Amino acid sequence: MINLKYLAYRSIFELLWATQAPRLIRALSKSRGVIFTLHRVLPEGPADFAPNSILQVTPQYLEHVIIRVREMGLEIVSLDEAIERIKAPVVGSAKFVVFTFDDAYKDNLVHALPVLRRRKCPFTLYVPTALVDGVGEVWWQALEDVIATQNAVATANRGGEISYYDTNTIAKKYEIYNQLYWRMRKMPEDARVKFIR
Fold first, then answer.
1. What is the spatial distance between Cα 68 and Cα 57, in angstroms, rounded to a whole number?
2. CA-CA distances (angstroms) from residue 113 to 63, 80, 102, 119, 129?
């Protein structure tokens, strides 16, 4: 079963490309550069239940984007270089691209770094200090992992009342994930950490 959210995003981007809208936007844009904000780089495509799949690309896709960006005549620069270019007066039409990776997933080291090295592609890796200190939680992934492996989940509400959720189908897993995700997004960090644990 194909992840519908993933398929929808892909279809939108393919439609935009087919209309040649990106070429027109580039021609009319006063933008001097683009930042690709990436998260996960995994060799396998998303599973049937993968609400966070929008955060992942394959190493092959990453390499394709690097090659394509250079074919389009865009220079890939470090974030520091991008800042310097933005501060400087506009000279010519040299546009640039920056690659960043958020959250320092292990797969950035295992799967992204070899591609980045092979293609001599500068990048910036953002490492949340709370994760390094051992106090941070990648709660959205933990929530996905719990729901993916269970046919039912239970949560305690503020008053201590227990709610039970049936998660024995992919559709129900998505429904419960979305419900709990948005509930957790509204929580203060300490309450969210307690809830996911």
1. 15
2. 11, 19, 14, 10, 21
- Give the tens place of pLDDT for each residue, 76-134: 999 999 999 888 887 665 789 999 999 999 999 999 999 999 999 999 999 998 877 87
- Going by C-alpha positions, the residue among 155, 161, 157 that lies closest to residue 197 is 155
Query: 36: closest CA among 71, 64, 7, 5?
Result: 64
Identify whether residues 95 and 156 lie together within a single domain. Answer: no
SS3 for 103-140 is CCCHHHHHHHHHHHHHCCCCCEEECCHHHHCCCCCCHH
Residue 43 amino acid letter: P
> Pairing mode, if any, of strands 162-166 and 152-156?
antiparallel
Question: Domain of 11?
Answer: 4-127
Integer Cα distance of 113 and 121 in angstroms: 9
Q: Same domain, yes or no, for 111 and 140?
A: no
Backbone angles phi, psi at 61, to 5 degrees: -65, -45
Quote the CA–CA distance of 42 and 59 in Å, as a whole number: 7
Which residue from 103, 8, 100, 98 is spatially nearest to 46, judged by alpha carbons?
8
Tally the C-alpha atoms within 13 A of residue 162's C-alpha that lie toward its C-beta. 4
Kindly report, residue by residue over 59-80, the tens digit of the pLDDT: 999 999 999 999 988 999 999 9
DSSP 50-69: -TTGGGEE-HHHHHHHHHHH
